[in-house]
Amino acid sequence: MSIFKNETDYRVGWKILLAILLYAAAMMLSIIPAILIYNFRDFTSLPEMVNLTMNSSIGNALQAVFSIAILWGICYLLVKKKAITWEKLGLDDSLSCALKKAGIGFICGAIVICVEIAVLCIFHYASLSKCSEGQNAIIAVTCGLVICAGIAFAEEVTFRGLIQGQFGEDKKALGIAVTTILFAAAHLLNTHYTVYSLIYLLIGSLAFSLMRVVTKGLWFPIGFHMAWDWVEMSVFGLNQEGTKHWFYVKGEEIPEYLICAVLMLFVTAVLLLIYRKQKA
Questions:
Q1: What integer pLDDT is reported at residue 252 of this predicted model?
Q2: CB atoms within 10 A of CB 139
Q3: Where are the domains of the chain?
Q4: What is the mean pLDDT of the chain?
Q5: Which conformational region is residue 138 in: left (phi greater than 0), alpha (psi within -120 to 50 degrees), or beta?
Q6: Weakest-pLDDT range from 41-45, 118-122, 152-156, 253-257
Q7: Are 174 and 165 within 8 A, CB to CB?
Q8: Region 141-168: what's the mean pLDDT?
Q9: Is the pLDDT of residue 3 over 50?
Q10: What is the residue-wise DSSP string for the chain?
């Protein structure tokens, strides 16, 4: 049975495709100013400048900042053209409310990953590793915060905002399902992609989509997503044994994915209960 049955549904399908293309365009365009700023003292060939920029923590942080600016500009134009509303995007909160929700989401995300790490250590699937890079690691971890902010904003605005926001209240479940699948599929090009990471991403995406519904906005899932990526990759370096972090995972990858997935669902379930009590 076809998901898109009538003219309105077909429009939603085209808008989903447009959202993905806009996301890809924003990512590509954000690289250009990052390259020019990072290499302003030494202009060489374009491939070399791209390589130097994207292999640098500072270069990646610059690209993240510009990706946020470009995507925000795209959202502004779409709202101005009445293609979508700030409410459907989930970005209609005031600045103070947005910061509060993002901050709470960030704290919740950091707690979830720290609990995951503690569980991995307890069951000997991970061990602490002291970083030997000193100041370079501090710079990398700090830039990582900006990079993860850019990733979280771009992915949440695209998938939970532009895509999930296209589905009305009567098709909320379908919107969550489509967004969850597309988000996981968008990571297929990641290195070391396995069936376990697919399950991990599907459950994580489901949790983000539910957070979007429960909190009636994007700021909480943006904060949670940002903390998830930053604490996991930049601070503790899960699955990234080496330098510029203080932690690495040893042993099988299955427990990491399953533990974090269960924790993500637990946090989402708690949010749903809190929301229902407030509505009662």
A1: 52
A2: 15
A3: 87-279
A4: 80
A5: alpha
A6: 253-257
A7: no
A8: 91
A9: no
A10: --S--SHHHHHHHHHHHHHHHHHHHHHHHHHHHHHHHHTTT----HHHHHHHHHTSHHHHHHHHHHHHHHHHHHHHHHHHTTSS-HHHHT--S-HHHHHHHHHHHHHHHHHHHHHHHHHHHHTTSEEE---S-THHHHHHHHHHHHHHHHHHHHHIIIIIIIIGGGS-GGGHHHHHHHHHHHHHHTTTTSTT--HHHHHHHHHHHHHHHHHHHHTTSSHHHHHHHHHHHIIIIIIS-TT--SSSSSEEE-S-SHHHHHHHHHHHHHHHHHHHHHHHHHH-
Distances, alpha carbon 1 to alpha carbons 4, 5, 6, 150, 172, in Å: 9, 9, 13, 37, 18
Task: Give the pLDDT mean for 17-28.
Answer: 92
Residues in the chain: 280
- Token readout for 250 is 């040893």
Q: Which residues of 144-166 are buried (b: 16+ CB within 10 A; e: fewer)?
A: bbbbbbbbbbbbbbbbbbbbbbb
The label of the residue with tokens 């790490």 reads: 117
